[in-house]
Design brief:
This protein has about 260 residues and is an alpha+beta fold. It has helices at about 5-15, 60-75, 130-135, 145-155, 205-220, 235-240, and strands at about 20, 35-40, 45, 50, 55, 120, 160-165, 170-175, 175-180, 190, 195, 225. The chain has 2 domains: about 5-75, no CATH class; about 120-240, Gcn5-related N-acetyltransferase (GNAT) (Aminopeptidase, 3-Layer(aba) Sandwich), CATH 3.40.630. About 30% of the residues lie in helices and about 20% in strands.
């Protein structure tokens, strides 16, 4: 692993509240050459360490940190819905003698109602009211009239947001955008926003929406996709890292 890659690995460790320790051995072929490990902020060994120093390969530490990020996000995006359990039917007692009345069969439990079907589709003007509610959860203020206007403009650009529905209810939305820049040979894809309703978290909707935009960007010829995410949304950052995204820059903004 190059020095730049090790620096990025160290930054990933810091984002998890850990410290990357590198071996001091500089002679190739020696036992601990190129080894790394992880400690907490107090210097206590966490992974790939023994009393003499680092023992793990960089790839092993990278995999450990990636799995650690998945655990951070699991409560909000990786928990499957547990179906309702049927009540166990108690076994009927055998008759005390030949003259006992015939056994009565317990009624069959009523099956649970079918779960609403999950689907992804392009946003429609009739979704405007619900989309305003979801966008407000991100802290962005926009009214229904302005949102309808934006949908009309995005439709002309073939960049309508993708919504997730459960039955007839919209429970998630993701934006999509491509841009051509002077310094890149291919268009760049962008995810400007993503939100899943609180009542629908745990159904893997976030992953499904991101994968849908990635597939769309590939068809547009994009070789890179970027995500915009507010600094204060640490859980979202862990989610994107779990999907293979890396922090590459700092975004600046100025109101006009």
């Amino acid at each position: 692993m190059s020095d730049d890659e090790l620096d990025r690995l160290a930054e990933t460790a810091r984002n998890r509240g850990l410290k990357l320790v590198r071996s001091r051995v500089r002679t190739p072929g020696k036992r601990r050459f190129g080894k790394v490990g992880l400690t907490d902020k107090g210097g206590k060994a966490v992974f790939g360490m023994d009393e003499k120093g680092p023992t793990a390969k960089p790839e092993e530490v990278e995999n450990y940190l990636r799995n650690l990020g998945a655990k951070d996000w699991g409560a909000s995006l990786g928990v499957a819905v547990v179906p309702r359990k049927r009540k166990a039917v108690k076994a009927a007692r055998p008759p005390a003698n030949d003259s006992a009345p015939a056994k009565k069969h317990a009624p069959k439990p009523t099956p649970p109602p079918p779960q609403p079907k999950l689907a992804l589709r392009d946003a429609k003007p009739s979704d405007a009211g619900r989309l305003v509610e979801l966008i407000h959860e991100l802290g962005h203020e926009i009214d229904e009239k302005s949102l309808r206007k934006n949908l009309a403009a995005l439709k002309k650009l073939d960049e309508l947001p993708i919504v997730a529905t459960l039955g007839k209810e919209v429970v998630g939305v993701i934006g999509r955008h491509t841009m051509t820049t002077v310094h890149r040979a291919a268009p760049v894809g962008r995810i400007p926003m993503l939100v899943v309703a609180k009542e629908a978290q745990g159904l893997m909707l976030g992953r499904k929406l991101v994968e849908a935009v990635e597939a769309w960007c590939r068809k547009k010829g994009c070789q890179l996709i970027e995500v915009t995410s507010n600094d204060r949304r640490g859980a979202a950052h862990a989610f994107y890292r779990h999907l293979g995204y890396e922090r590459t820059s700092i975004r600046f903004a100025k109101k006009l």
